[in-house]
Design goal:
The chain is of the alpha/beta class. The chain has one domain (2-223): 3-Layer(aba) Sandwich (Rossmann fold). 23% of the residues lie in helices and 22% in strands. The protein has helices at residues 19-27, 76-92, 101-109, 147-152, 213-223; strands at 2-5, 7-9, 14-16, 32-35, 49-52, 96-99, 114-115, 138-142, 156-159, 166-167, 174-179, 185-190, 195-198. The strands form 3 sheets. The protein has a 9-stranded mixed beta sheet with strand order 4-1-5-6-13-12-11-8-9, with helices on both faces. A two-stranded antiparallel ribbon has the order 2-3. It has a two-stranded antiparallel sheet with strand order 7-10. The longest helix has 17 residues, at 76-92. The structure holds manganese (II) ion.
């Protein structure tokens, strides 16, 4: 059972989640369980692994900053749910894969912080591509022998990019294991267990690019008690 965090469509007052996440979990052999953005946590005994999905910006109050002009939309109920989910998952050792916004939530829940808007960072590449989701717009260098490297078996990959924020100071117990050429953190992981976050969207690259399918396979395997 893989808990998948859902977002809010504020305009239509609906809970929403791109099907690509659900499909990716199913292809990997997991059972998707959607977790609604209620502002509260969710019973951790109901799922074996957690998938934190992409979405709007995290309220900078969670990392002790006031909102700056480059900050985008925020969703307070989603923030409350996801921060609590990560806190409990790290405590319990629940396998966790965090995508895009998810890697930012993971870092902040562990005490780290974010660049509120990458355009304020000198020399930053364009990290919000206009190309389709399957297109890999920039490169990443992956640390050898990291969890990410053990799953993908490569030190160089090309990824899509749909973010305007990124990880700044790392949260406690987390290490950065992939960077884009401009030095932006593109992957984070825990020192123990299965805790992995990527700044790109592997689920959106399927089926044109299948290089990142093993990420979902590894989450489901870890949720089933397997060693990676
Ligand atoms: Mn990027």
């Amino acid at each position: 059972m893989i808990g998948i965090t859902a977002g809010v469509d504020e305009k239509y007052e609906r809970c929403q989640i791109p099907l690509a996440y659900i499909d990716a979990v199913r292809r990997a052999g997991g059972v998707p369980l959607l977790i609604p953005p209620t502002g509260e946590g969710f019973p951790p005994e109901l799922f074996d692994g957690l998938l934190l999905t992409g979405g709007v910006d995290l309220d900078p109050a969670y990392y002790r900053e006031e909102p700056r002009p480059g900050l985008g939309a925020i969703c307070p109920d989603r923030d409350g749910t996801e921060i609590e989910l990560v806190r409990v998952a790290l405590e319990r050792g629940t396998p966790l894969l965090a995508i895009c916004r998810g890697v930012q939530v993971l870092n902040v829940a562990a005490g780290g912080d974010l660049y509120q808007d990458l355009s304020s960072r000198r020399g930053a590449l364009k990290h919000y591509q206009d190309a389709p989701g399957w297109h890999a717009s920039h490169g990443v260098a992956i640390e050898r022998d990291s969890l990410l490297w053990r799953i993908l078996r490569t030190e160089a990959a090309r990824v899509n990019s749909f973010h305007h924020q990124s990880v700044r100071l790392l949260g406690a117990g987390l290490v950065a294991t992939a960077y884009s050429p401009d030095g932006v953190v593109e992957a984070l992981e825990g020192r123990r267990g299965f805790v992995l976050g990527v700044q790109w969207h592997p689920e959106r690259m399927w089926p044109r690019c299948q290089e990142f399918e093993p990420l979902f396979g590894a989450l489901v395997a870890a949720a089933g008690g397997g060693e990676i």
